[in-house]
């Protein structure tokens, strides 16, 4: 009781303190320092119509590479924590006909929509991370509907590594051509797609990197799901 | 039911995916079409084995015509169902007589069974609880006939005349 009351008082004090600090910032005032530069130059410098994508992949690409690394470490960590030699699915009952047929019919559509999200990253909201998560959802659905289902590991893990490596290689090519890591060589050096800004084939390496991120995130989250739903075989620790 | 050839199933998946892509992008820009076709081909190759059993035979004109005719028929049934439930909710005496009935279906195809189960759930106060073989277990808000034959006449029969052509 005392503990709970103390916790509530502490939260109220912290909340008041934060609200007080925020009250110093006038609402609606123009606070953009770097933002203006991004909005004014995004089309010429990157070719992307979606300014968020341009910032995430192009201007601050190193952060995205870090994010991808964090996700990779998370997936590896889960795999390391749950590692056993013999592991199998432990679901007791099969899904009904309705669930199984439904998930089989939905699978290609979910995957297509995930691909749609990541290839249109430079034009519409979304990008590699939402697209990859959508694709992982399709596999999660298969895991939930079928008792025996398992992803083809021989394809998934190499694909995951390959996508991550390709991201770094794209960055390294930029380093060789333009002088710094993740320099957008397709847009700045090759000048590819300069005449169709706003259409699909534009924005330099953003669609390529987002395709790689989409593949990586999709396979990675699926791998995490795969690790989490399997349990050690009885007596097979 | 025997499976169609791999090529037929693959082509069918690619066609369906490409049509969905056209609706998604709602643009006929050649760039969109190229990428859409590429993705349809890749995703089709990955998923056609789970997606379809009968392949191109699904695109028989008779089946498509029945499928298009089924849409307004089903929407009308759905509107009437929702008005019926609204009536039951608003009526002061609440005329409900709920129960679980068993129905039989003549459909043998899994996709057909899925369509029937979903159609039942979305229409006149009925919800599909489980499907086992050719038996449907249905929760009915107003049980008029508890026998298997009678319930089938009331619940599954009206949809089956369409679904049988579309999926069998």
Automatic annotation (TrEMBL), chain A:
Membrane topology designation: Multi-pass membrane protein
Domain Na+/H+ antiporter MnhB subunit-related protein: 98-221
One GO cellular component term: plasma membrane
Keyword Transmembrane helix: yes
Keyword Membrane part of the UniProt annotation: yes
Residue ranges occupied by any MrpA C-terminal/MbhE domain in the UniProt entry: 7-86
Keywords assigned: Cell membrane, Membrane, Transmembrane, Transmembrane helix
InterPro entries found in the cross-reference section: CPA3_antiporter_subunitB, MnhB, MrpA_C/MbhE
Name assigned to this protein: Putative Na(+) H(+) antiporter subunit B
From TrEMBL, chain B:
Topology within the bilayer: Multi-pass membrane protein
Molecular functions per Gene Ontology: monoatomic cation transmembrane transporter activity
Entry keywords, A to Z: Cell membrane, Membrane, Transmembrane, Transmembrane helix
InterPro entries assigned to the protein according to its UniProt record, in alphabetical order: Cation_antiport_E
TM regions (residue ranges): 7-27, 33-52, 64-83
GO cellular component, one term: plasma membrane
Pfam families per UniProt: MNHE (PF01899)
Subcellular location: Cell membrane
Annotated protein name in UniProt: Na(+) H(+) antiporter subunit E
